[in-house]
Amino acid sequence: MSTPVDRRTVLKGSLVLAFSLMGPHALGAAPRPGGLPRSLRAHPRLDAWLEISADGVVTLKTGKVELGQGVLTALGQICADELDVDFSRLTLVSGDTVRSPDEGTTAGSMSMPESGTAVRHAAAEARALLLEMAGQHLGVKASRLRVKDGLITAPGGRSVTYWSLMGGKSLNREATGTVSPKPPGERRYIGRPVPRVDLPAKVMGEPVFVQDFRSDTLVHGRVVRAPSPGASLVEVDTARVEGLPGVLKVVRDGDFLAVIATREWLAIKAAASLAETARWREQEALPVDVHAWLLEQPTQDTVIEDTPRPTDEASARTVEARYRRPYQMHGAIGPSCAVAEWDGDVLTVHSHSQSIFDTTEAIARMLRLPTDKVHGRHLQGSGCYGHNGADDAAADAALLAHALPGRAVRVQWSREDEHACEPYGSAMVMKVRAGVSDRGDVLDWDYELWSMPHGTRPGGNPGNLLAGRSRASPFRMPVPRNGGPPSYAADRNAIPLYAFPGRKVTTHFVPRMPLRVSSMRALGAYGNVFAIESFMDELAHAAGADPVDFRLRQLQDARARAVILKAAERFGWSPAPRPPGRGRGIGFARYKNLASYCAVCVEVSVDPKTRAVRVLRAVLAADAGEVVNPDGLVNQLEGGLIQSLSWSLKEAVRYDARRVLSRDWSTYPILTFSEVPPVDVALIDRPGEPFLGAGEAAQGPTAAALANAVFDATGVRVRDLPLTPERLAASGKQG
Amino acid sequence: MSFTLKVNGRAHTVDVPEDTPLLYVLRDELGLNGAKYGCGVGQCGACTVLSNGTSLRSCVVPAARLGGRELTTLEGLRAPDGAPHPLQKAFLAEQAGQCAYCIPGMLMAAAALLREKPRPSEAEIRTALDANLCRCGSHNRIVRAIQRAAAELAK
Ligand code: FES
Ligand code: FES
Questions:
Q1: Architecture of domain A210-282+330-421 in this structure
Q2: Are A635 and B21 in contact (CB < 8 Å)?
Q3: What Gene3D superfamilies does this protein's entry cite (chain A) (predicted)?
Q4: In 3D, which of A563, A596, A570 has the Cα closest to residue A584?
Q5: CA-based torsion, A526, A447, A457, A691: positive or negative
Q6: What is the rounded average pLDDT of the residues A351-355?
Q7: What DSSP state is assigned to residue B56?
Q8: Helix (H/G/I), strand (E/B), else coil: B13
């Protein structure tokens, strides 16, 4: 299977096949309950998903994109199984606004539930259709035919192939919802650790990333960023820079200031000169204590859960606590990059955006071009973990390309641009109060959270692109909204999964954002699960109960209980006393309360003098429904756990009233090799169950497990992330 | 300024401003992809290459100063017949990487380590790679891949 980087933009004309003889009944089964899966309902034509060529190549088209999570491999496995072809026959087209079905954003752990389920049904329908055609061709009932790697054989041995039946023609037929996918036992690829299709080229140094894009007309653009949020450009001497070696053009459009040069190094130097001559008007408007600021803001309040307790027995005690998470950054290792080219008619944009369809539309609107004149193509970038600078870099490149026709303009953000200008994960405050029984179990649970937005992706609106907002006639940023049920955003996972008799959950949403914020892996679930699971640990401690038992006795969901038990067992959880300075903790959540179940146990040691926390080992158990690629899933869960350890131990964006101060890896340190613990991941496979999506499942549980382990080791409860030695020392003093 | 650089066993004459870091010469003049831009200030290791067998951060050293050196990028790691280096095989065997943007730098840092210390302990590997950053959390797989390659090379 291959994922071609260099695809032609022109669609090859394909012959159309008439299926006049076959109505939907030809396939014989009852329609699928609940109708077609969502993505397939939106794009019901089978040729939106699949092409079968005369030379035996099967092209699978998906709107979801590879972010390093292995989605293309997993989708290929599903397709190969349902269509009955060898995996090696597959070619993937992903995230191409001309060729792929628009499946929205690749985010929210939705790729397997959405695209995976759609591909499964589309391939099953295509297979049934091919069998029907073969039946007519061979004069045999379709039900008596066998398929192996596209070779259809009738009982007497006569055969025909997919390629001869389909070659050059298009599957122009709508999905009917009447074909059932194969039962689990008949699958060859699903459930197996098929190696990732994208890794060999990356390990061999082939050009796979958008950063590696080359063309004869390639030139390099560099944007001079405002030094602080909300700064406006007062004056700049562009003439000085226009004469520098290699400089092709200086572009100033309002507060948007950039230079294009023949070589990247010359562009970097020219941009530095431009920055020297630029004078900006800055504001001193950033709230240095963002948590205090959050509590003072006008809020949009929503009670998202309100179940009064059926009995009115008085609670024995009331306990409360407040937790906080800081601004944190996605921090891709490769800063954002894009390449755009305008040929006077069509603008082509190569980007590692997670939302290539929406971002392409926003770019078209920003440049006032018809949407069909902007072609967005996803090319892989460095792992992004949410909405980072990718879309803004695409808009930068588009704006510059539009100003310099006939050249492919590559815009590579600097490390400093990415650190200072990417939208961060929102700071949050979480308060929880519980009335508990004699035994310490929760009777009434009252939870409130304060948060800024977790979703300011372009969504087709140029006001959500830095370039769009900076132009002389700027596009206004739309007022951000919180996401609603069932997935939620700021309040994702704010409703506990525990069977508490009385429960109330209130969201205080603050639409303002002094520093730009947007979606970062798990959105509000990172803060909410940290708070809920830390508080559960506090309650268990107050009740004199074991933290694992305490959770289990208030949890009814059988799959939730199973992952907690699995994690505890693999970890060797025991009540035996820990050596001094050592502790263990557990954290659990079902991501979004509807995706993967995940429990994490960690063991830490805390240095009595320096207060430095060292994570000695971690165990994670997950139930992601039917597992498509166990190795890919383990890789992603372990990666999420390690990233959450990094967030939770070290990371907070630093800034003062005027500027962001975290501008490189020394001012925003992340976890390094010698700090990464061994991680053991256990999967509970559920063949036949829906795919649940797991890419973000570990973020919240890991943070809580860590804080709980630190408490177990030291008796110090840290309710503010990250758990730095200074925090530990400060929390210890307060008691 | 015009000078000659020896990269992956071949001499190249390049003409670039004197202060051009090696990274940009490799990527823009020689069309090589192995060295990645990550930070440009020597903090992340994405741009790591070998200079006379030891690791070098190509983003911070002007190419013009490296005239006499044998430089190796990821493209030069494989055998002359194109066969993957044992490290490359091991990274694939362990499926070490998610986005894999950091992986070229990891491979080159590992190659430098194994040249100096053919059988490093796990702790030595972690220390040697401590300034090579990975954001995806692929660290443990990378360590296992290096151990696997070391064992393979020792055979
Ligand atoms: S790019 Fe050279 S060390 Fe980061
Ligand atoms: S694998 Fe993505 S940064 Fe290392």
A1: 2-Layer Sandwich (3.30)
A2: no
A3: Aldehyde oxidase/xanthine dehydrogenase, a/b hammerhead, Aldehyde oxidase/xanthine dehydrogenase, molybdopterin binding domain
A4: A570
A5: positive
A6: 95
A7: E
A8: strand
**A589-614 average pLDDT score:** 97
Three-state SS at A496: coil
Contact (Cβ atoms closer than 8 angstroms) between residue A716 and residue A725? no
Q: Which domains does chain B have, with CATH numbers?
A: 2-76 (3.10.20.30), 86-154 (1.10.150.120)
SS3 of residue A220 by DSSP: strand
pLDDT of residue A375 exceeding 90: yes
Burial classification of residue A90, based on how many CB atoms lie within 10 Å of its CB (0-12 exposed, 13-18 middle, 19 or more buried): buried
Amino acid at A495: I
Predicted local confidence at residue A34, as pLDDT: 64
Q: How many helical (H) and strand (E) elements, i.e. helices and strands, does chain A have?
A: 19, 26
Q: What angle do CA A499, A502, A505 make, to 5 degrees?
A: 95
The shares of helix, strand and coil residues in chain B, as percent rounded to the nearest 5, are 40, 15, 45
Alpha-carbon A721 to chain mean position: 22
A444 phi/psi in degrees, rounded to 5: -125, 135
- Can you name the CATH fold of A428-454+489-733? Aldehyde Oxidoreductase; domain 4 (3.30.365)
Helices (H), A84-211: 111, 117-138, 162-166, 199-203
DSSP B6: E
Predicted pLDDT of residue A110: 81
CA angle B132, A386, A323 (to 5 degrees): 90
For the segment B71-80, the average pLDDT, to the nearest whole number, is: 96
Beta strands A374-378; A347-351: pairing state = parallel
The CATH-assigned architecture of domain A4-194 is: 2-Layer Sandwich (3.30)
Chain B: nearest CA to A199, how far in angstroms? 7
Cα–Cα dist A89/A61, whole Å = 14
Q: Which chain A residues are closer than 8 Å to B99 by Cβ?
A: 67-68, 333-334, 380-383
Closest chain B residue to A379, measured at CA:
B99
Inter-chain CB proximity B135 and A670 less than 8 Å? yes
Q: What pLDDT, on a 0 to 100 scale, did the predictor assign at position A33? A: 55
Q: Is the CB of residue B57 less than 8 Å away from at least one CB of chain A?
A: no
Question: A211-233: b or e for each residue (b if 16 or more CB lie within 10 Å)?
Answer: bbbeeeebbbbbbbbbebbebeb
Report the pocket of ligand 1 as residue ranges, CB < 6 Å: B 37-40, 42-47, 57, 59
What is the complex's ipTM, to 2 decimals? 0.98
Distances (CA, A) of B1 to B4, B17, B19, B51, B61: 10, 6, 9, 21, 15
Q: Which residue has 């091919």 as its token pair?
A: A130
**Start-end ranges of CATH 3.30.365.10 in chain A?**
4-194, 210-282+330-421, 428-454+489-733
**At residue A17, does pLDDT exceed 60?**
no
Rounded distance between C-alpha atoms, residue A115 and residue A101, angstroms: 10
Q: Which helix (H) or strand (E) holds A92?
A: strand A90-94
